[in-house]
Write a structure and sequence with these properties.
Distance between the termini: 87 Å
Largest sheet: 8 strands, mixed
Order of helices and strands: EHEEHEHEHEHEHEEEEEEEHHH
Shape: globular
Structural class: alpha/beta
Mean pLDDT: 91
CATH superfamily of the largest domain: Dihydrodipicolinate Reductase, domain 2
Strand order of the largest sheet: 8-9-10-7-11-12-13-14
Number of domains: 2
CATH architecture of the largest domain: 2-Layer Sandwich
Radius of gyration: 23 Å
Strand content: 25-35%
Length: 344
C-alpha cells in the first residue's frame, strides 16, 4: 500500500463517470474525496464520497487531481477551471469539442506546470498493449496498412458530438500510437440516419506520414458490436479484438513458384496462425494506475494533452473532408425512365 494518499475528485456521474467512481474508490494510493454533478447521485454511484454541485465546492475538499467525465461540450470550461486552481486532470476523450478549445487546454496546463492526460482507454486494452510492443520490436517488419472497424447500436448517453468525435477518436488515437506515425491525409464520408443532429456513420481512408494506408469504418447503426483492428505488414497480419482482448497473428506462408511466367512474382500465401496468451487486466484500471503514478512524479506512459489535441485535429479534418465531397456527373441519372422511353 502506498504511504502517500493522493486526493482525487470526479466530475460527472454519467455512464463513464460511474465506472471512474468504481475504480477510484478502490485504487491503491488514492482516496476519492468528492464528486461534482449538478444532478446529484440518485443511483448511489459515488461510493460514499460526498457529492457537490459546483467546482468551488469540489475544490474546497482539497484535490491533488480530478477526473473529468462530464459531457464533451463542458471539457474546456471545467479543464480551464482545474488548471487555474492548480489541480492536475485526467480528461475523458475527446479532449474537447473543438481543436481550438483543446489547444487552450494544452496551453493552460502547460503554463501551470501540471500533469494532465486524456482518457483514450483503448491504449490500455491488453490486446493493443501487446500489439504495440510487438510492432515496436519490429515483429511485423514494414507496416503497409492499418484497418479498424468500430460499430454498434446508438448510445443514448451521447448527445453533444457525433460518431467521429466520440467513437472514431478511439481509432485515430490508437493507430497513431500503434504505428508511431502521424496522419498526413484523410478522406471521409459521413451520414446521419438515426434522426440525431450529428453524424452516426463515417468511413475514412487516409495515409500516415510513413506511407501506411489507413481505413476506418465507424458507426452507431449496427446491431453487431464490433471492435476490430488489423495491422498488415511484410511478415503477415496482426488482428486485435478489443471486446475480448484477443490478439492473433496470421503469418505469411511460402509457396514454391513452379510456373515460369510467375517465377519473378513475390506474393504471400496463408501461413501459420497464432493466438497469444496475454494477461487481461481491466483497461480502465490500468489507465488510472498510470495516471496516478504520473501525478505522483513517476515516469509512466499516459496520453498527453498534446496527443489528445492532435486526435481532435484529425477528427475535424475528417469532418471537413466529408463536407467537401466531389460529385461526379451520372451517365444515366434516371435508368428506369430511359427504359420506358426506349420501349414507347
Amino acid at each position: 500500500m502506498s504511504t502517500h494518499i493522493l486526493r482525487a475528485g470526479l466530475i460527472g456521474l454519467g455512464a463513464m463517470g460511474r465506472h471512474h467512481a468504481r475504480v477510484l474508490s478502490s485504487l491503491d494510493g488514492v482516496a476519492l474525496v468528492g464528486v461534482m454533478d449538478p444532478a446529484g447521485d440518485p443511483a448511489g454511484a459515488s461510493r460514499g464520497a460526498p457529492v457537490v454541485a459546483t467546482l468551488p465546492e469540489l475544490f474546497a475538499l482539497g484535490l491533488d487531481y480530478a477526473v473529468v467525465a462530464c459531457p464533451t461540450a463542458l471539457h474546456e470550461e471545467i479543464g480551464l477551471g482545474l488548471a487555474e486552481h492548480g489541480v492536475s486532470a485526467l480528461i475523458e476523450k475527446p479532449l474537447a469539442h473543438s481543436a481550438a478549445a483543446a489547444r487552450r487546454l494544452v496551453d493552460a496546463f502547460d503554463q501551470a506546470g501540471l500533469v494532465a492526460g486524456v482518457g483514450h482507454i483503448e491504449r490500455f486494452n491488453p490486446a493493443l498493449q501487446s500489439l504495440q510492443s510487438r510492432l515496436e520490436a519490429g515483429e511485423l517488419g514494414e507496416v503497409f496498412q492499418a484497418v479498424t472497424r468500430r460499430q454498434g447500436p446508438f448510445p443514448h448517453r451521447i448527445a453533444d458530438v457525433g460518431v467521429v468525435k466520440d467513437l472514431a477518436t478511439h481509432d485515430i488515437d490508437l493507430i497513431g500510437w500503434l504505428t508511431g506515425s502521424e496522419y498526413a491525409t484523410v478522406t471521409a464520408r459521413t451520414v446521419s440516419k438515426s434522426g440525431h443532429p450529428h453524424e452516426d456513420m463515417v468511413a475514412v481512408v487516409g495515409d500516415l506520414a510513413d506511407g501506411t494506408m489507413v481505413s476506418h469504418l465507424v458507426n452507431w447503426l449496427s446491431p453487431l458490436k464490433e471492435r476490430f483492428t488489423a495491422i498488415t505488414g511484410e511478415r503477415g497480419c496482426f488482428i486485435a479484438d478489443t471486446l475480448t482482448a484477443d490478439l492473433t497473428f496470421h503469418a505469411n506462408g511460402a509457396v514454391p513458384m513452379e510456373w515460369e511466367a510467375l517465377s519473378a512474382f513475390r506474393g504471400v500465401s496463408e501461413g501459420d496462425m497464432v493466438r497469444y496468451a496475454i494477461p487481461k487486466r481491466e483497461p480502465l484500471l490500468v489507465e488510472h494506475e498510470r495516471f496516478r503514478d504520473a501525478v505522483g512524479g513517476k515516469a509512466t506512459d499516459i496520453v498527453t494533452l498534446s496527443q489528445g489535441l492532435r486526435t481532435v485535429e484529425v477528427a475535424e479534418a475528417v469532418l471537413d473532408s466529408a463536407r467537401r465531397r466531389v460529385s461526379l456527373p451520372l451517365r444515366n441519372p434516371h435508368p428506369d425512365l430511359a427504359v420506358v422511353t426506349q420501349r414507347s
